[in-house]
């Protein structure tokens, strides 16, 4: 191994995670509570990490004397051509020190387990609309972890409230210019924020304004709750965003609620006029933003247009889709791909349709209720000889107004699809599974596919993109 020296150091005596004052969030329990540093899970052969002797199972404890607590530290400290490392080897409980070196443009060749290594910062708020508090009691524990980690906002795009950040963390984020950040704003008036978030709400605005003053770009979000932060409260929040050009996009998403709570019984999903009123309220802000900033800035979630029974706006109003994975512009992107297929790839569509007709195969395209009309546009590409139809799955597992494709559960999917699926091709949206291939009700992808295959189905799981779906049907 290419390390200069080694000291025996039991793993349990490694440096402890620093603790913060009670006014900010504590770290949640680490997946490896007795192990500090970053766990190495893979090393590229003949890379700088491999040449140094780093192997999977080892832990990098520090970089250039800084404790390796997250990928931000790693990226910041290894931006040059060399870095000083401390590495723990669990085989003999030793810590070795060495300098890792690379050529210009060369990758280090090491992959770590996750993005944060010292435990995720958890939420200190009491948000009345928190989906984690509306889950069924039998939900697996990992679904109820309420993360609110500013590092994951920068690294992975998670939305955070900033209410649990210490002054030292704020200074560090500004010093490293962690930009952009995704911030849950919800409301600007103090009383409304306290009602929505809880007593820590003022801290979020304090940190937000420090970030804005420092030049950190902000993508903000509002969860709109009827009768709470809509109307005049929403107007005040929109005016605040308008006055702060550092907030380059604002996503407004409707309240979602399940049957496993007692606070909410209605939202925009059953209020066409209320949804249209929100659309109308935003229009002058969008027009002014396009005139003064050259972009729309103020963006409504796709559900608002579905709930208002209005067409989704054209692609150019989405500013390059900065909040696509917050449900902003997904339907427009899908519809535009359908139109591209119609204009430029109908030969491929007809070829697939003819193939399906010859096999006498029907196609069931699975989606959530909110997206059915949009998915119907894809099915309409095919001639009547090819039976390609959507199957909207009603979300009985969560209940309430949950109707999006990404929250479909295996129990509802299996209960609502036909028992006889002979000669049927079933397209399952990949988004219903997590990284480990589990649905929200804890069933595996293999179980779902095996259950449908037992009914005679040919099951295909793919990204919900017209191009990808067409490719799957043509294979």
SSE order and pairing:
Layout: E1 5-8, E2 38-43, H1 48-52, E3 59-63, E4 66-67, H2 71-77, E5 82-89, E6 94-101, E7 110-112, H3 150-156, H4 167-175, E8 181-184, H5 190-197, H6 201-214, E9 218-224, H7 231-242, E10 247-254, H8 272-292, E11 298-300, H9 302-307, H10 330-344, H11 346-359, E12 362-368, H12 372-379, E13 387-393, H13 410-416, E14 424-429, H14 445-453, E15 458-462, H15 466-474
Parallel strand pairs: 8-9, 9-10, 10-11, 12-13, 12-14, 14-15
Antiparallel strand pairs: 1-6, 2-3, 2-7, 3-4, 3-5, 5-6
Helix pairs in contact: 7-8, 10-11, 10-12
How would you characterize the overall build of this protein?
The chain is an alpha/beta fold and about 475 residues long. Strands 1, 2, 3, 4, 5, 6 and 7 form a 7-stranded antiparallel sheet that branches. Strands 8-9-10-11 form a 4-stranded parallel sheet. α7 runs parallel beside α8 and α10 packs parallel to α12. The two termini are about 50 Å apart.
List keywords for this structure.
globular; four-stranded parallel sheet; alpha/beta; 15 strands; 475 residues
Helix percentage: 25-40%
Biggest sheet: strands, sense, closure? Answer: 7 strands, antiparallel
Structural class: alpha/beta
The end-to-end distance, rounded to whole angstroms, is 48 Å
Radius of gyration from the CA trace?
25 Å
Query: Which whole number gives the mean pLDDT?
Result: 90
What's the count of strands? 15
């Amino acid at each position: 191994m290419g390390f200069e020296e080694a000291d025996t150091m039991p793993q349990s005596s490694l440096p402890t995670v620093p603790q913060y004052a009670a006014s900010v969030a504590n770290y949640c329990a680490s997946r490896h509570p007795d192990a500090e540093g970053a766990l190495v899970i893979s090393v590229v052969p003949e890379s700088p990490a491999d040449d140094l002797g780093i192997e999977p199972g080892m832990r990098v404890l520090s970089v250039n004397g800084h404790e390796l607590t997250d990928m931000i530290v790693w990226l910041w400290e290894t931006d040059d051509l060399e870095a000083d490392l401390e590495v723990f080897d669990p085989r003999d409980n030793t810590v070795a020190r060495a300098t890792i070196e690379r050529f210009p443009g060369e990758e280090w060749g090491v992959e770590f387990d996750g993005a944060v290594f010292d435990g995720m910062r958890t939420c200190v708020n009491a948000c009345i609309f928190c989906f984690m508090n509306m889950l069924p009691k039998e939900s697996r524990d990992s679904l109820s972890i309420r993360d609110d980690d500013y590092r994951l906002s920068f690294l992975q795009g998670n939305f955070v409230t900033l209410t649990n950040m210490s002054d030292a963390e704020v200074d560090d984020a500004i010093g490293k210019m962690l930009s952009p950040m995704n911030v849950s704003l919800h409301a600007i008036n103090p009383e409304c924020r306290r009602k929505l978030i809880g007593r820590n709400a003022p801290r979020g605005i304090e940190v937000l304004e420090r970030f804005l003053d420092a030049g950190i770009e902000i993508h903000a979000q509002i969860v709109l709750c009827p009768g709470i932060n809509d109307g005049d409260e929403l107007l005040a929040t929109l005016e605040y965003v308008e006055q702060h050009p550092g907030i380059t996009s604002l996503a407004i998403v409707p309240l979602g609620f399940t049957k496993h709570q007692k606070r909410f019984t209605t939202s925009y999903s059953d209020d066409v006029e209320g949804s249209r009123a929100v659309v109308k309220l935003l229009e002058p802000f969008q027009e002014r933003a396009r005139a003064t900033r050259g972009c729309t800035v103020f963006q409504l979630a796709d559900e608002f247009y579905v709930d208002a029974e209005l067409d989704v706006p054209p692609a150019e109003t989405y500013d390059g889709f900065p909040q696509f994975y917050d449900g902003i512009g997904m339907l427009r992107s899908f519809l535009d791909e359908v139109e591209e297929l119609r204009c430029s790839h109908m030969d491929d569509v007809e070829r697939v349709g003819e193939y399906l007709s010859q096999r006498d195969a029907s196609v069931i395209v699975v989606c959530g209720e909110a997206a059915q009309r949009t998915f119907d546009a894809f099915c309409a590409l095919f001639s009547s000889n090819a039976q390609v139809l959507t199957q909207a799955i009603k979300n009985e597992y969560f209940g309430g107004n949950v109707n999006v494709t990404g929250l479909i559960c295996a129990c509802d999917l299996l209960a609502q699809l036909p028992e006889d699926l002979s000669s049927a091709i079933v397209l399952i949206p990949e988004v219903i599974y997590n990284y480990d291939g589990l649905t929200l009700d804890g069933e595996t992808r293999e179980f779902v596919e095996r259950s449908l295959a037992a009914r005679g189905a040919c099951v295909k799981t793919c990204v919900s993109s017209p191009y990808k779906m067409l490719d799957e049907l043509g294979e």
